[in-house]
Amino acid sequence: MEFSKILVPVTGTEVDNEAIRLACRLGKKNKAKIWVVYVITVKRSLPLDAGIEPEIRKAEGVLDHMEDIAEEQDYEIETDLLQAREAGAAIVDEAVERGVDLILMGVTYKRRFGQFTLGDVVPYVLKNAPCHVILYHQPTT
Fold it and tell me: What average pLDDT does the chain have?
């Protein structure tokens, strides 16, 4: 598969580092454009453009770190910080707006009621994405 536009949503977990590296490797052949987005979920009690400083600082730190990792891979990426009510919808909307042909998401192992779960964001993206989706999961040790 060859991709020319790749969207990588990040959350600040360790798996994001490998997802960025994988996106850079997948994009090198065609010199793909890579966008990395961090979505801050805003509570409904707040305005959508609320300045949630601790979250914004964390997000900017994560995005700076993603740029450093891409630089190590000798690749240039664009980063963007989004605020939305639902992360899944924001990711799909961003994919549509940018016309991407791949969403590459790092996923972590989560348990809910003793069972493995992907949470709410990943299933939403899988169901509604207008393009290919690759989930990157690091093995648990």
Answer: 91
Contacts of 93 by beta carbon, 8 Å cutoff, 6+ apart: none
**What pTM was computed for the model?**
0.91
54-70 residues labelled b (16+ CB within 10 A) or e (exposed): ebeeebeebbeebbebb
Sheet holding 132-137, edge to edge: 78-84, 33-41, 5-10, 102-107, 132-137
Which residues lie closer than 8 Å to 47 by C-beta, 6 or more apart?
A: none
Each residue of 120-131: pLDDT tens digit? 999 999 999 999
**Helix (H), strand (E) at residue 19:** helix 14-28
